[in-house]
Amino acid sequence: MNEQLKSDSALRGDMKTPVSRKSNLLFLIPGLILGACLVAVVIALLLGPMTAEEATRTFQSDRLAVAVTDELGLTAWGYMSPNGEIVIKPAYDQALSFGDASLAPVCKEGKWGYVNRHGELTVELQFTVANEFENDYATVVLDGKWGVVNGRGEITVAPAFDHISNFTGNGLAVAVKEGKCGFINGRGEIVIPLEYDGADNFDANGNAAVYKDGRWGLINQKNETVVDFLYDKPFCIIKNRITPVMKDGKYGYIDYKGKVAIDFRFDSAMLFDNNGLAAVKQGELWGYINRHGDFKIDPQFEEADSFYDAQLARVKLNGKYGYVDRGGDMAIPAQFDMARPFADNGLAAICPNATSALWGYINKRGEIVIKPTYLKAESFCNDLAVVESVSGLAYINKRGEVKIDCPELCTSASPFTGDGYAVLSYMGVNGAQIFEVIDKNGNVVGNTRVAMIEK
Protein backbone atom coordinates (compact mmCIF):
# COMPACT_ATOMS: atom_id res chain seq x y z
CA MET A 1 0.00 0.00 0.00
CA ASN A 2 1.13 3.54 -0.70
CA GLU A 3 2.81 5.29 2.23
CA GLN A 4 0.02 7.84 1.94
CA LEU A 5 -2.33 8.01 4.89
CA LYS A 6 0.09 6.77 7.51
CA SER A 7 0.40 8.59 10.82
CA ASP A 8 2.51 8.22 13.93
CA SER A 9 2.14 7.29 17.50
CA ALA A 10 5.56 6.63 18.97
CA LEU A 11 8.45 6.55 16.51
CA ARG A 12 11.68 4.68 16.96
CA GLY A 13 14.78 6.14 15.39
CA ASP A 14 15.34 3.14 13.15
CA MET A 15 11.81 3.31 11.71
CA LYS A 16 11.44 4.70 8.24
CA THR A 17 7.66 4.47 8.22
CA PRO A 18 5.02 5.41 10.79
CA VAL A 19 3.44 2.80 12.99
CA SER A 20 -0.24 3.25 12.13
CA ARG A 21 -2.36 4.13 9.13
CA LYS A 22 -4.59 7.15 8.84
CA SER A 23 -8.02 6.36 7.46
CA ASN A 24 -9.07 8.16 4.31
CA LEU A 25 -12.53 8.60 2.86
CA LEU A 26 -12.79 8.57 -0.92
CA PHE A 27 -15.80 9.01 -3.16
CA LEU A 28 -16.13 6.56 -6.01
CA ILE A 29 -18.19 7.07 -9.16
CA PRO A 30 -18.60 3.52 -10.42
CA GLY A 31 -19.79 4.09 -13.95
CA LEU A 32 -21.03 6.44 -16.62
CA ILE A 33 -24.64 5.75 -17.54
CA LEU A 34 -24.70 6.13 -21.30
CA GLY A 35 -27.60 7.75 -23.12
CA ALA A 36 -28.88 9.73 -20.13
CA CYS A 37 -25.26 10.81 -19.41
CA LEU A 38 -25.69 10.45 -15.68
CA VAL A 39 -23.20 9.24 -13.10
CA ALA A 40 -24.14 7.35 -9.93
CA VAL A 41 -22.16 8.44 -6.88
CA VAL A 42 -21.56 6.20 -3.90
CA ILE A 43 -19.15 6.54 -1.02
CA ALA A 44 -16.26 4.10 -0.72
CA LEU A 45 -13.88 3.77 2.22
CA LEU A 46 -10.91 1.96 0.72
CA LEU A 47 -8.18 2.20 3.33
CA GLY A 48 -9.57 1.45 6.76
CA PRO A 49 -12.29 2.09 9.35
CA MET A 50 -14.11 5.40 9.74
CA THR A 51 -16.09 6.94 12.57
CA ALA A 52 -19.41 8.66 12.15
CA GLU A 53 -17.73 11.94 13.05
CA GLU A 54 -15.11 11.49 10.31
CA ALA A 55 -17.72 10.60 7.73
CA THR A 56 -19.93 13.54 8.60
CA ARG A 57 -17.01 15.98 8.41
CA THR A 58 -16.09 14.62 5.00
CA PHE A 59 -19.63 14.96 3.67
CA GLN A 60 -19.66 18.57 4.83
CA SER A 61 -16.51 19.37 2.82
CA ASP A 62 -17.07 21.45 -0.30
CA ARG A 63 -14.56 19.43 -2.36
CA LEU A 64 -15.00 15.65 -2.44
CA ALA A 65 -12.47 13.41 -4.22
CA VAL A 66 -14.25 11.34 -6.89
CA ALA A 67 -13.23 8.80 -9.50
CA VAL A 68 -15.10 8.87 -12.82
CA THR A 69 -15.06 5.81 -15.08
CA ASP A 70 -16.04 6.53 -18.68
CA GLU A 71 -17.61 4.27 -21.29
CA LEU A 72 -14.15 2.99 -22.30
CA GLY A 73 -13.42 1.87 -18.74
CA LEU A 74 -10.87 4.62 -18.12
CA THR A 75 -10.91 6.13 -14.62
CA ALA A 76 -9.76 9.60 -13.60
CA TRP A 77 -9.97 11.42 -10.29
CA GLY A 78 -11.24 14.92 -9.65
CA TYR A 79 -13.46 16.72 -7.14
CA MET A 80 -17.15 17.41 -6.80
CA SER A 81 -19.32 19.48 -4.48
CA PRO A 82 -21.75 17.75 -2.07
CA ASN A 83 -24.64 18.57 -4.43
CA GLY A 84 -22.99 16.52 -7.17
CA GLU A 85 -21.41 19.23 -9.31
CA ILE A 86 -17.95 18.45 -10.70
CA VAL A 87 -15.81 21.41 -9.55
CA ILE A 88 -12.34 20.11 -10.50
CA LYS A 89 -12.21 18.13 -13.73
CA PRO A 90 -11.14 14.48 -13.29
CA ALA A 91 -7.56 14.34 -14.61
CA TYR A 92 -5.56 12.34 -12.04
CA ASP A 93 -4.82 8.71 -11.22
CA GLN A 94 -5.64 9.36 -7.55
CA ALA A 95 -6.81 12.27 -5.42
CA LEU A 96 -7.03 12.73 -1.66
CA SER A 97 -9.08 15.00 0.57
CA PHE A 98 -8.81 18.77 0.96
CA GLY A 99 -10.22 18.65 4.49
CA ASP A 100 -9.99 22.20 5.81
CA ALA A 101 -6.88 22.99 3.77
CA SER A 102 -6.55 25.02 0.59
CA LEU A 103 -4.53 22.27 -1.13
CA ALA A 104 -5.08 18.55 -1.70
CA PRO A 105 -2.71 15.78 -2.85
CA VAL A 106 -3.15 14.39 -6.39
CA CYS A 107 -1.21 11.76 -8.31
CA LYS A 108 -0.48 11.13 -11.97
CA GLU A 109 1.84 8.49 -13.40
CA GLY A 110 3.18 7.70 -9.95
CA LYS A 111 4.09 11.28 -9.03
CA TRP A 112 2.28 13.34 -6.41
CA GLY A 113 1.69 17.06 -6.12
CA TYR A 114 -1.01 19.43 -4.84
CA VAL A 115 -3.96 21.21 -6.44
CA ASN A 116 -5.78 24.23 -5.02
CA ARG A 117 -9.53 24.54 -4.73
CA HIS A 118 -9.73 26.01 -8.22
CA GLY A 119 -8.08 22.94 -9.68
CA GLU A 120 -4.75 24.63 -10.38
CA LEU A 121 -1.65 22.50 -9.87
CA THR A 122 0.06 24.57 -7.16
CA VAL A 123 2.83 22.08 -6.32
CA GLU A 124 4.13 20.18 -9.34
CA LEU A 125 3.88 16.41 -9.57
CA GLN A 126 7.22 15.25 -8.20
CA PHE A 127 6.83 13.30 -4.95
CA THR A 128 6.51 9.57 -4.31
CA VAL A 129 4.32 10.40 -1.30
CA ALA A 130 2.23 13.50 -0.56
CA ASN A 131 0.08 13.47 2.56
CA GLU A 132 -2.94 15.54 3.47
CA PHE A 133 -2.51 18.76 5.45
CA GLU A 134 -2.68 18.75 9.20
CA ASN A 135 -2.18 21.88 11.32
CA ASP A 136 -1.11 23.92 8.25
CA TYR A 137 1.59 21.53 6.99
CA ALA A 138 1.80 18.37 4.89
CA THR A 139 4.63 15.84 4.71
CA VAL A 140 6.05 14.65 1.40
CA VAL A 141 8.62 12.09 0.25
CA LEU A 142 11.13 12.53 -2.59
CA ASP A 143 13.87 10.00 -3.36
CA GLY A 144 13.14 8.23 -0.08
CA LYS A 145 13.52 11.34 2.09
CA TRP A 146 10.81 13.26 3.92
CA GLY A 147 10.12 16.99 3.67
CA VAL A 148 7.32 19.49 4.34
CA VAL A 149 5.00 21.67 2.25
CA ASN A 150 3.06 24.63 3.70
CA GLY A 151 -0.45 25.78 2.87
CA ARG A 152 0.83 28.13 0.14
CA GLY A 153 2.45 25.24 -1.65
CA GLU A 154 5.99 26.18 -0.67
CA ILE A 155 8.49 23.45 0.19
CA THR A 156 9.53 24.72 3.61
CA VAL A 157 11.54 21.64 4.60
CA ALA A 158 13.62 20.11 1.82
CA PRO A 159 13.31 16.30 1.75
CA ALA A 160 16.25 15.25 3.91
CA PHE A 161 14.80 13.26 6.83
CA ASP A 162 14.16 9.53 7.16
CA HIS A 163 10.71 10.29 8.50
CA ILE A 164 8.58 13.23 9.67
CA SER A 165 5.39 12.75 11.71
CA ASN A 166 2.21 14.78 11.44
CA PHE A 167 2.47 18.30 12.84
CA THR A 168 0.64 18.84 16.11
CA GLY A 169 -1.15 21.93 17.38
CA ASN A 170 2.06 23.40 18.82
CA GLY A 171 3.58 23.51 15.33
CA LEU A 172 6.13 20.74 15.93
CA ALA A 173 6.65 17.31 14.38
CA VAL A 174 8.86 14.36 15.20
CA ALA A 175 11.75 14.13 12.73
CA VAL A 176 13.98 11.08 12.27
CA LYS A 177 17.44 11.08 10.71
CA GLU A 178 20.23 8.52 10.91
CA GLY A 179 18.43 6.61 13.65
CA LYS A 180 17.81 9.57 15.97
CA CYS A 181 14.61 11.50 16.73
CA GLY A 182 14.00 15.15 17.55
CA PHE A 183 11.47 17.85 16.75
CA ILE A 184 11.28 20.38 13.93
CA ASN A 185 8.95 23.25 13.13
CA GLY A 186 7.27 23.84 9.78
CA ARG A 187 10.25 25.85 8.53
CA GLY A 188 12.56 22.91 9.09
CA GLU A 189 14.31 24.45 12.06
CA ILE A 190 15.43 21.85 14.60
CA VAL A 191 13.69 22.96 17.79
CA ILE A 192 14.72 19.93 19.83
CA PRO A 193 17.94 18.18 18.79
CA LEU A 194 17.81 14.78 17.12
CA GLU A 195 19.22 12.99 20.14
CA TYR A 196 16.52 10.48 21.10
CA ASP A 197 16.04 6.85 20.08
CA GLY A 198 12.26 7.27 19.85
CA ALA A 199 9.63 9.96 20.29
CA ASP A 200 5.92 10.57 20.39
CA ASN A 201 4.18 13.77 19.32
CA PHE A 202 3.56 16.51 21.88
CA ASP A 203 0.31 16.17 23.80
CA ALA A 204 -2.21 18.86 24.74
CA ASN A 205 -0.31 19.51 27.98
CA GLY A 206 2.85 20.45 26.07
CA ASN A 207 4.78 17.27 26.90
CA ALA A 208 6.20 14.55 24.65
CA ALA A 209 7.27 11.02 25.50
CA VAL A 210 10.82 10.37 24.29
CA TYR A 211 13.04 7.30 24.44
CA LYS A 212 16.75 7.02 25.19
CA ASP A 213 19.05 4.46 26.74
CA GLY A 214 16.23 1.93 26.71
CA ARG A 215 13.81 4.01 28.81
CA TRP A 216 10.93 6.44 28.24
CA GLY A 217 10.54 9.84 29.88
CA LEU A 218 8.78 13.14 29.23
CA ILE A 219 10.17 16.43 27.96
CA ASN A 220 8.60 19.85 27.46
CA GLN A 221 8.93 22.10 24.43
CA LYS A 222 12.18 23.54 25.79
CA ASN A 223 13.66 20.02 25.84
CA GLU A 224 13.65 20.07 29.63
CA THR A 225 13.05 16.73 31.34
CA VAL A 226 9.62 16.73 32.96
CA VAL A 227 9.63 13.07 34.01
CA ASP A 228 12.89 11.13 34.30
CA PHE A 229 13.81 8.36 31.88
CA LEU A 230 12.74 5.40 33.97
CA TYR A 231 9.84 3.72 32.21
CA ASP A 232 9.26 0.75 29.92
CA LYS A 233 6.55 2.23 27.69
CA PRO A 234 5.54 5.67 26.36
CA PHE A 235 2.99 7.50 28.51
CA CYS A 236 1.42 10.87 29.12
CA ILE A 237 0.52 12.65 32.34
CA ILE A 238 -2.68 14.47 33.13
CA LYS A 239 -2.75 17.64 35.19
CA ASN A 240 -3.97 17.13 38.77
CA ARG A 241 -4.25 13.37 38.19
CA ILE A 242 -2.02 10.40 38.91
CA THR A 243 -1.14 8.26 35.92
CA PRO A 244 -0.28 4.55 35.54
CA VAL A 245 3.21 3.88 34.17
CA MET A 246 5.29 0.72 33.76
CA LYS A 247 8.75 0.26 35.27
CA ASP A 248 10.73 -2.97 35.17
CA GLY A 249 7.63 -4.89 34.13
CA LYS A 250 5.37 -3.60 36.93
CA TYR A 251 2.81 -0.79 37.01
CA GLY A 252 2.59 2.01 39.52
CA TYR A 253 1.36 5.60 39.46
CA ILE A 254 3.11 8.96 39.18
CA ASP A 255 1.76 12.46 39.69
CA TYR A 256 1.86 15.41 37.30
CA LYS A 257 5.42 16.28 38.38
CA GLY A 258 6.67 12.72 37.90
CA LYS A 259 6.81 11.86 41.60
CA VAL A 260 5.89 8.26 42.44
CA ALA A 261 2.44 8.26 44.05
CA ILE A 262 1.83 4.49 44.22
CA ASP A 263 4.62 1.90 44.17
CA PHE A 264 5.26 -0.42 41.23
CA ARG A 265 3.56 -3.65 42.23
CA PHE A 266 0.78 -4.27 39.71
CA ASP A 267 0.74 -6.37 36.55
CA SER A 268 -1.65 -3.98 34.82
CA ALA A 269 -3.38 -0.75 35.80
CA MET A 270 -6.06 1.65 34.59
CA LEU A 271 -6.62 5.36 35.13
CA PHE A 272 -8.46 6.52 38.24
CA ASP A 273 -12.05 7.61 37.78
CA ASN A 274 -13.29 10.93 39.16
CA ASN A 275 -14.44 9.22 42.35
CA GLY A 276 -11.01 7.82 43.16
CA LEU A 277 -11.05 4.15 42.17
CA ALA A 278 -8.80 2.43 39.65
CA ALA A 279 -8.87 -1.16 38.39
CA VAL A 280 -5.52 -2.93 38.81
CA LYS A 281 -4.32 -6.45 38.15
CA GLN A 282 -2.23 -8.35 40.67
CA GLY A 283 -1.14 -11.76 39.49
CA GLU A 284 -4.04 -13.13 37.47
CA LEU A 285 -6.83 -11.25 39.24
CA TRP A 286 -8.24 -7.73 39.14
CA GLY A 287 -9.37 -5.52 42.00
CA TYR A 288 -9.80 -1.81 42.73
CA ILE A 289 -7.53 0.56 44.65
CA ASN A 290 -7.92 4.09 46.01
CA ARG A 291 -5.49 6.95 45.37
CA HIS A 292 -3.35 5.81 48.30
CA GLY A 293 -2.82 2.44 46.63
CA ASP A 294 -4.96 0.57 49.17
CA PHE A 295 -7.31 -2.12 47.87
CA LYS A 296 -10.95 -1.08 48.31
CA ILE A 297 -12.13 -4.17 46.41
CA ASP A 298 -9.79 -7.13 46.75
CA PRO A 299 -8.37 -8.84 43.63
CA GLN A 300 -10.85 -11.57 42.71
CA PHE A 301 -12.02 -10.94 39.15
CA GLU A 302 -10.72 -12.45 35.89
CA GLU A 303 -11.67 -9.19 34.15
CA ALA A 304 -12.66 -5.75 35.44
CA ASP A 305 -13.74 -2.50 33.80
CA SER A 306 -13.19 0.97 35.15
CA PHE A 307 -16.13 2.47 37.02
CA TYR A 308 -15.59 5.69 35.07
CA ASP A 309 -18.18 7.89 36.79
CA ALA A 310 -20.81 5.16 37.18
CA GLN A 311 -21.87 3.24 40.26
CA LEU A 312 -21.50 -0.20 38.67
CA ALA A 313 -18.59 -1.78 36.80
CA ARG A 314 -18.67 -4.91 34.67
CA VAL A 315 -16.53 -7.75 36.03
CA LYS A 316 -15.93 -11.40 35.25
CA LEU A 317 -16.07 -13.85 38.15
CA ASN A 318 -15.79 -17.62 37.84
CA GLY A 319 -16.24 -17.41 34.08
CA LYS A 320 -19.43 -15.31 34.19
CA TYR A 321 -20.08 -11.57 33.87
CA GLY A 322 -21.84 -9.48 36.47
CA TYR A 323 -21.62 -5.98 37.94
CA VAL A 324 -19.89 -4.85 41.13
CA ASP A 325 -20.68 -1.66 43.03
CA ARG A 326 -18.16 0.73 44.56
CA GLY A 327 -18.44 -0.97 47.93
CA GLY A 328 -17.33 -4.29 46.44
CA ASP A 329 -20.75 -5.95 46.54
CA MET A 330 -22.00 -7.85 43.48
CA ALA A 331 -25.01 -5.66 42.77
CA ILE A 332 -25.87 -7.93 39.84
CA PRO A 333 -24.54 -11.48 40.33
CA ALA A 334 -22.11 -12.90 37.79
CA GLN A 335 -24.52 -14.93 35.65
CA PHE A 336 -24.08 -13.86 32.02
CA ASP A 337 -21.86 -15.53 29.44
CA MET A 338 -21.36 -12.18 27.70
CA ALA A 339 -22.15 -8.63 28.76
CA ARG A 340 -21.37 -5.00 27.98
CA PRO A 341 -20.92 -2.05 30.36
CA PHE A 342 -23.91 0.05 31.37
CA ALA A 343 -24.77 2.92 29.06
CA ASP A 344 -25.76 6.41 30.19
CA ASN A 345 -29.45 5.48 29.94
CA GLY A 346 -29.00 2.80 32.63
CA LEU A 347 -29.22 -0.25 30.38
CA ALA A 348 -26.58 -2.87 29.61
CA ALA A 349 -26.56 -5.44 26.79
CA ILE A 350 -26.27 -9.00 28.07
CA CYS A 351 -26.16 -12.53 26.65
CA PRO A 352 -27.25 -15.04 29.33
CA ASN A 353 -26.22 -18.13 27.38
CA ALA A 354 -23.42 -18.31 24.81
CA THR A 355 -24.94 -21.45 23.29
CA SER A 356 -28.13 -19.69 22.24
CA ALA A 357 -26.07 -16.48 21.71
CA LEU A 358 -29.13 -14.24 22.06
CA TRP A 359 -28.76 -10.73 23.45
CA GLY A 360 -31.08 -8.50 25.43
CA TYR A 361 -30.84 -5.66 27.96
CA ILE A 362 -30.99 -5.32 31.75
CA ASN A 363 -31.44 -2.34 34.05
CA LYS A 364 -29.25 -1.55 37.08
CA ARG A 365 -31.40 -3.77 39.28
CA GLY A 366 -30.49 -6.70 37.06
CA GLU A 367 -34.02 -6.95 35.64
CA ILE A 368 -34.38 -7.91 31.99
CA VAL A 369 -36.16 -5.00 30.33
CA ILE A 370 -35.62 -6.05 26.69
CA LYS A 371 -35.80 -9.81 26.20
CA PRO A 372 -32.78 -11.65 24.76
CA THR A 373 -33.95 -12.13 21.18
CA TYR A 374 -31.15 -10.47 19.20
CA LEU A 375 -28.21 -12.06 17.42
CA LYS A 376 -26.17 -8.99 18.35
CA ALA A 377 -26.81 -6.02 20.64
CA GLU A 378 -24.54 -3.00 21.07
CA SER A 379 -24.51 -0.52 23.95
CA PHE A 380 -26.91 2.40 23.84
CA CYS A 381 -25.39 5.65 22.61
CA ASN A 382 -27.31 8.91 22.29
CA ASP A 383 -30.65 7.19 23.01
CA LEU A 384 -30.41 4.40 20.43
CA ALA A 385 -28.69 1.00 20.20
CA VAL A 386 -27.77 -1.11 17.19
CA VAL A 387 -29.23 -4.63 17.23
CA GLU A 388 -29.22 -7.49 14.76
CA SER A 389 -32.03 -9.99 14.28
CA VAL A 390 -32.75 -12.56 11.59
CA SER A 391 -34.26 -9.74 9.52
CA GLY A 392 -31.12 -7.59 9.68
CA LEU A 393 -29.79 -4.54 11.52
CA ALA A 394 -31.90 -1.92 13.26
CA TYR A 395 -31.75 0.86 15.85
CA ILE A 396 -33.96 0.45 18.93
CA ASN A 397 -34.86 2.76 21.82
CA LYS A 398 -34.74 1.86 25.53
CA ARG A 399 -38.23 0.37 25.34
CA GLY A 400 -37.07 -2.06 22.66
CA GLU A 401 -39.04 -0.32 19.91
CA VAL A 402 -37.48 -0.30 16.45
CA LYS A 403 -36.89 3.32 15.47
CA ILE A 404 -34.84 2.74 12.29
CA ASP A 405 -34.77 -0.36 10.13
CA CYS A 406 -31.49 -0.59 8.23
CA PRO A 407 -31.64 -1.58 4.53
CA GLU A 408 -31.36 -5.29 3.77
CA LEU A 409 -27.82 -5.09 2.34
CA CYS A 410 -26.44 -3.12 5.30
CA THR A 411 -23.50 -4.95 6.92
CA SER A 412 -22.76 -2.61 9.82
CA ALA A 413 -24.17 0.45 11.56
CA SER A 414 -22.31 2.89 13.79
CA PRO A 415 -23.59 4.50 17.00
CA PHE A 416 -25.15 7.95 16.59
CA THR A 417 -22.98 10.98 17.21
CA GLY A 418 -23.98 13.65 19.68
CA ASP A 419 -25.32 15.83 16.87
CA GLY A 420 -27.47 13.02 15.51
CA TYR A 421 -25.62 11.23 12.70
CA ALA A 422 -24.70 7.58 12.11
CA VAL A 423 -22.95 5.70 9.31
CA LEU A 424 -24.32 2.61 7.57
CA SER A 425 -21.99 0.46 5.48
CA TYR A 426 -22.40 -1.98 2.62
CA MET A 427 -20.00 -4.19 0.73
CA GLY A 428 -19.27 -2.80 -2.70
CA VAL A 429 -17.37 -3.95 -5.76
CA ASN A 430 -13.77 -5.12 -5.48
CA GLY A 431 -14.07 -5.42 -1.70
CA ALA A 432 -14.65 -1.68 -1.23
CA GLN A 433 -16.86 -0.71 1.69
CA ILE A 434 -19.70 1.61 0.79
CA PHE A 435 -21.04 4.14 3.32
CA GLU A 436 -23.97 6.47 3.80
CA VAL A 437 -24.81 8.89 6.61
CA ILE A 438 -28.26 8.91 8.19
CA ASP A 439 -30.02 11.12 10.71
CA LYS A 440 -32.11 9.94 13.67
CA ASN A 441 -35.18 9.65 11.46
CA GLY A 442 -33.34 7.18 9.26
CA ASN A 443 -33.09 9.64 6.39
CA VAL A 444 -29.94 9.66 4.27
CA VAL A 445 -28.13 12.97 4.71
CA GLY A 446 -27.77 14.97 1.50
CA ASN A 447 -26.37 13.01 -1.44
CA THR A 448 -24.42 10.56 0.65
CA ARG A 449 -26.13 7.45 -0.70
CA VAL A 450 -26.60 8.05 -4.43
CA ALA A 451 -26.44 11.34 -6.31
CA MET A 452 -27.29 11.65 -10.02
CA ILE A 453 -25.32 14.38 -11.73
CA GLU A 454 -25.15 15.50 -15.33
CA LYS A 455 -21.85 15.02 -17.11
What does this structure look like?
This protein is mostly beta strands. It has a domain at 337-405: Thrombin, subunit H (Beta Barrel), CATH 2.40.10. 2% of the residues lie in helices and 51% in strands. The chain contains 1 helix and 48 strands. The strands form 11 sheets. Strands 4, 5, 6, 7, 8, 9, 45, 46, 47 and 48 form a 10-stranded mixed beta sheet that branches. Strands 2-22-23-24-25 form a 5-stranded antiparallel beta sheet, with no helix packed on it. Strands 10-11-12-13 form a 4-stranded antiparallel beta sheet, with no helix packed on it. A hairpin with a 4-residue loop joins strand 5 (32-33) and strand 6 (38-45).
